[in-house]
Design brief:
about 450 residues, mainly alpha
């Protein structure tokens, strides 16, 4: 298929769909340069939405219940957007570091158009992911970044998009050995395919895949990985293949009903807090722990470690699952759920428009748009927790939007929606102003 000279190759919808399942063969996904490699992840966004909708339908047919909750779903999507915002400003550190090693230190060069190179890279990227993933569970400072992905107490396709903002700044190290002989263009394809494959395995609607369970990472295997049951802890690290877990002794088959989330739930939908609170916990533990060697152990040993304990902590300290665990689910008025869905859809529109026009925007405009997106995602998290000060933040957010939209710094993909957005945000600012005035008046009446 054609493309602009030197730019990413175009992909047909059918190719994009197969890329989600790692089913795009070498002949259709091999490129001579990194510049030609399509952005498979960005182009998969419509398929993410479609499969999430399909999962809701199948879950309703199977169990007569939806596969997720609005608050947790918005939280997962917010974390996914937040994790991708640095890529708007900078090229992927995975590729930057890989290309640097390739250009300066490669030992030899495998042919980019050979199927053997393609399949070797599949194995290499997945093995590197296994070791990085495993270490991210066994080293506290890396777990602080990775735990975001495990913080949901639901398990659905929303959870797949719940990604860490910080994890990418350490994962790149594990891919560098491949840069000694595998061309960057081949690596860039498999880096995306490995990530995309892991989207569809985050579901409960697929039970067992028969013989494929022996080789591939499947929904059943990955449900175990996301469980907080004692038998699930630190198991099934594979990305695409489960063979690494079978080889290195970290495999566990699905058995008792899996309860999802962290052993000590965070109980928040605030995306910034979910990303950064574990780092604050390490900081506090570092200074509270006596002895320099123990302080280093706080950082580099497992999240369950403490003075006098084994490197990964004591298994008996993992909280017992009773089956009565209740997910964090603050009660909010029904209108607030609808409000959050509508405003999140607006942010998705603005985010998609930013991705499509980033090369034409000034650095200041890009930073302003990113800032507004972060402000919005934070506000949605506070609204879903029914925080008292969320209304104040919403007034500020809505007024900021009206101002920057009128000045042309923020744009929708659909020019026809411009006036509707201005009216919507103006009315919402007035609504929250009225709500706050009512609360103040009610508080004064109680004190008289």
């Amino acid at each position: 298929m054609g493309s602009e000279a030197g730019g990413p190759r175009a992909t047909a919808p059918g190719q994009q769909l197969r890329a989600l399942f790692y089913l795009l063969p070498p002949g259709q996904s091999s490129f001579g340069t990194v510049e030609e490699v399509p952005d498979y992840v960005e182009k998969s966004i419509p398929f993410f939405i479609a499969f999430i909708g399909l999962e809701f339908v199948v879950s309703w047919v199977q169990k007569r219940k939806l596969s997720g909750r609005i608050n947790d779903g918005i939280s997962s999507l917010s974390l996914g957007i937040l994790s991708r915002l640095p890529d708007v400003l900078f090229r992927s550190i995975d590729l930057i570091s890989y290309i640097y090693v390739w250009n300066n230190y490669r030992l030899f060069e495998l042919p980019w158009d050979s199927p053997w190179t393609w399949y070797l890279t599949l194995l290499g990227v997945d093995l590197a992911y296994y070791f990085f993933h495993r270490i991210s569970h066994e080293v506290n400072i890396l777990w602080a970044a990775h735990q975001v992905h495990h913080s949901s107490e639901d398990y659905n396709l929303f959870t797949a998009l719940r990604q860490s903002l910080l994890q990418k700044y350490t994962s790149w190290i594990f891919n560098l050995p491949m840069a000694l002989f595998i061309p960057p263009s081949v690596f860039a394809v498999h880096l995306q395919f490995n990530l995309l494959y892991q989207f569809w395995i985050h579901t409960e609607v697929i039970t067992n895949l028969g013989p494929l369970e022996w080789i591939l990472n499947t929904p059943s295997h990955h449900r175990v990985h996301h469980g907080r049951n004692p038998y699930c802890i630190d198991k099934n690290y594979g990305g695409t293949l489960i063979i690494w877990d079978r080889i290195f002794g970290t495999f566990e088959a699905e058995d008792a009903k899996v309860v999802y989330g962290l052993t000590h739930p965070v109980n928040s939908f605030d995306p910034i807090m979910l990303q950064l609170r574990p780092l604050a916990h390490i900081w506090n533990a570092f200074w509270a722990t006596p002895g320099f060697r123990n302080k280093l152990s706080v950082i580099f040993k497992g999240p369950g470690w403490g003075p006098g304990k084994p490197r990964l902590g004591l298994p008996e300290e993992i909280p017992v699952i009773t089956g009565k665990e209740v997910p964090f689910n603050p009660s909010v008025p029904a209108y607030l759920n609808y409000y959050a869905v509508v405003h999140f859809a607006v942010i998705m529109d603005l985010y998609t428009e930013l991705l499509g026009t980033v090369t034409m925007l000034s650095q200041g405009t890009i930073l302003l748009r990113i800032g507004f997106i972060i402000l919005s995602l934070t506000s949605f998290g506070l609204l879903m927790e029914n925080r008292p000060k969320a209304g104040i933040l919403e007034i500020i957010r809505c007024l900021v939007f009206v101002g920057v939209y009128k000045l042309g710094y923020v744009r929708s993909q659909f020019s026809s929606l411009g006036y509707a957005y201005e009216v919507l945000f103006s009315l919402c600012a007035a609504f929250w102003g009225i709500q706050i005035m009512k609360r103040i008046t009610s508080s004064k009446d109680k004190h008289h």
